[in-house]
Amino acid sequence: MANIGFIGLGIMGRPMAGHLIAGGHKLYVHNRSAPPQDLLEKGAIACGNGADVARQAEIIITMLPDTPDVAGVLFGEGGVAEGLEKGKIVVDMSSISPIATKEFAQRVNALGCDYLDAPVSGGDVGARAATLTIMVGGPEAAFARVKPIFELMGKNITLVGGNGDGQTTKVANQIIVALTIEAVGEALLFASKAGADPARVRQALMGGFANSRILEVHGERMVKRNFEPGFRIALHQKDLNLALQGARSLGVSLPNTATCQELFNAATAAGGGAWDHSGMVRVLEKLANYEIGQG
Prior knowledge:
alpha/beta; six-stranded parallel β-sheet; 14 helices; 9 strands; 53% helix
């Protein structure tokens, strides 16, 4: 059993950390606010900052909202880097910039430690069920060492390539998710406005070629009007910003990604930054002056 550090105990991090405790590991935790009491009752040990976590743990996991948060936790005052010793592994499971990730990896490598970028997909449902998809970038030896820990949190675990490649894969994932949410929203809005029962339409489509996890989970949210976050629109905006910034630097056009970002922007302007990302449909409904199911 390993001594593991976990920094960032929000909607995703909290259940992920819980699975590591249940797997028998000793867990040292730090959070911006007080660590969740349920984790402490299960045996997690609270630390005052990232440096304290890194001194105690051999593998340090971060699960944070954005690139500046990871930079601060790793390299700010009292950060993880201050507590690292040769041979330790830093694993960032946040969704952040691939370019910054490569820089972070180089700085951690210079301290004699390995770095894995290992963003996840599956939302709060996957985090709670330990069924996350985990996309990893970094050296094979470090991946092999951490893989049993990943297996406590996820099911589909892939070493994609070197540092930064895990984050690049996550950006690609978020493009697909955003565009599919938009497609499901349009389809259910069209069906409902045409007079069909959107719940039954969704059920019928789930048996055909149009089926997807998005149709299953987010389509249900749209029909039942449940936009409490699993994954907040503000975070998906951040991910699509990474996609569009990367596309600009690569000279690639992502026209439908840009459209989805504008829909998220409109949702945020309407006060929906904290909605679940399935709440994109509310903007489509506003454009149509019609809400799914209102007929």
